[in-house]
């Protein structure tokens, strides 16, 4: 019984340390960004013209961050698949920590992982379509294709092919067989 208390205490202790360190990094990041933004807002027009050669920080990447992606379908599918894998990992770890899936019983953990992965394909499709509609400002065109790619295929299979329609179908079949 004592081992179980020490085990839970160690897990809680590790989580608290990780949360504390992540908070420190987040505060440092926020201070740096806030300082950069206030510095750039305070500059007037002539000082800005002199500083154009010396720009650093957020101003260098602001144009790249808000640019539309070159392959939005691939981005949406990859984000949806990432949510699916992250959700599967979190739910599996949660169920294992609560004792529903014991590593002592063979196959329970991997079966649970596969089950959660399969069920969370719905979440992957939702997130991918939601991101698709966000990128295209609510445009309804192409969301069905993105949804099927997110739920049925892996992210690397969703890109555009350069060899024509036959080449794309071959890639989809290969990805479905080996994914």
UniProtKB/TrEMBL annotation:
Keyword Chloroplast found: no
Record localization: Endosome membrane; Golgi apparatus membrane
Listed GO biological process terms: protein localization to membrane
Main location: membrane
Pfam families attached to this UniProt entry: EMP70
Membrane disposition: Multi-pass membrane protein
Cellular compartments per GO CC: endosome membrane; Golgi membrane
Top-level division of the source organism's lineage: Eukaryota
Entry keyword set: Endosome, Golgi apparatus, Membrane, Signal, Transmembrane, Transmembrane helix
Protein name from the UniProt record: Transmembrane 9 superfamily member
Lineage of producing organism: Eukaryota, Viridiplantae, Streptophyta, Embryophyta, Tracheophyta
